[in-house]
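Figure 3 (text version): structure tokens given as input.
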């Protein structure tokens, strides 16, 4: 404990029973800031406490929180003003809102647009949080095959119909929702019935390609192919979004086949500039034929057409017996460093111990296809 607040180290977040993130949490969204006072790191993530409600879509989504760090390794939770220390909770004001049952974080960044301009640094900048949430609708998923398992007929899930929203903040702690054009307040809706993304749109990642060209990559599940897939929406200001039209109606990646790490598709991801080219890299969470989750890599020269770097993942579950991340890894987030290397933050959980954690792996120098898990104990 330090200054009355719990301090935790990347690899497994300690769980406090009176927090929004106990016992489940995931999806690190990490930003690094440098100024004359030194280096600061911030991590937004979402979590769900034991009393949140078992009738809502079964994910660690629920509420969104924040942690801070001087080095990206040792983290201290920031006490938000919302329920159980969160900084954003489900919508309590508008019963018709898209985010009344649960919320999750997708991306946080300083955005420069014609409507809202900022310096690009945390101080004095309007922060955009692209988040997602589910409403109170019960969605019939009976007969759908997900991850190799067929859901029994008659099963309905509340909160599955997720849509993407936007909120703004000057300090990263206090957030105000920006109402979108959709009647629910969302800035981006699900697809029409029969389209690949009609079940939900979630886990947005945004890239500002140029001054008036924003790209949002998002996750959905296509019942027709039984694959998790990634779509693309575009915007001129980062606020109003339209699905990219084409042969697949906005879908840009639907996974591989055979023995590929994403044979059953891929979803949650992070897109960064390729340090070796003028293009982009997309680190994705893929699901293989056996249902295992791992992190792989796609590349693109323009951010529109993507190719798998390899059928093999760049990071998979640990081979160590009893490891907290031995089963699945996902929710990738990459932070480039000055020496050309990068840090890969990720989430995992253990069915055996029930623990959830956020870990970090280090690239092999400038080779962003090879990673070694960071061990906080060995580096202490």
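Below: residues designed for each position.
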């Amino acid at each position: 404990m330090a200054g009355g607040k719990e301090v935790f180290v990347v690899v497994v977040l300690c769980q406090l029973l009176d927090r929004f993130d106990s016992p489940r949490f995931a999806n690190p969204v990490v930003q690094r800031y440098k100024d004359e006072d030194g280096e600061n790191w911030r991590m937004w993530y979402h979590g769900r406490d034991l009393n949140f409600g078992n009738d809502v879509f079964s994910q660690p989504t629920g509420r969104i929180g924040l942690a801070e760090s001087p080095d990206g390794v040792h983290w201290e939770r920031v006490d938000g003003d919302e329920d159980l220390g969160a900084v954003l909770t489900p919508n309590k004001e508008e019963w018709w809102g898209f985010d009344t049952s649960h919320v999750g974080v997708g991306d946080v960044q300083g955005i420069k647009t014609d409507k809202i301009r900022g310096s690009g640094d945390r101080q004095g900048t309007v922060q955009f949080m692209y988040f997602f949430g589910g409403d109170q609708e019960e969605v019939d998923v009976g007969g759908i095959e997900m991850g190799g398992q067929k859901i029994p007929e008659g099963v309905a899930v509340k909160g599955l119909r997720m849509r993407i929203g936007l909120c703004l903040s000057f300090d990263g702690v206090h957030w105000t929702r920006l109402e979108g054009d959709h009647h629910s307040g969302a800035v981006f809706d699900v697809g029409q019935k029969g389209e690949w993304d009609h079940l939900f749109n979630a886990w947005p990642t945004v890239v500002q390609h140029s001054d008036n060209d924003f790209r949002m990559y998002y996750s959905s599940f296509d019942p027709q192919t039984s694959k998790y897939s990634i779509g693309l929406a575009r915007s001129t200001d980062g606020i109003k979004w339209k699905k990219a039209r084409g042969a697949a109606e906005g879908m840009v990646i639907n996974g591989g086949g055979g023995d590929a790490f994403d044979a059953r598709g891929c979803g949650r991801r992070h897109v960064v500039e390729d340090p070796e080219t003028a293009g982009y890299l997309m680190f994705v969470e893929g699901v293989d034929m056996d249902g295992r989750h791992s992190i792989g890599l796609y590349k693109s020269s323009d951010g529109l057409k993507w190719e798998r770097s390899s059928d093999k993942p760049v990071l998979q579950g640990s081979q160590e017996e009893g490891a907290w991340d031995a089963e699945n890894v996902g929710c990738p987030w990459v932070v480039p460093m000055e020496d050309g290397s990068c840090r890969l933050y990720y989430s995992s959980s253990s069915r055996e111990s029930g623990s959830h954690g956020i870990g970090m792996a280090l690239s092999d120098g400038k080779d962003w296809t090879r990673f070694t898990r960071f061990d906080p104990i060995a580096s202490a």
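Confidence is low (pLDDT under 50) at residues 1-9, 117-124.
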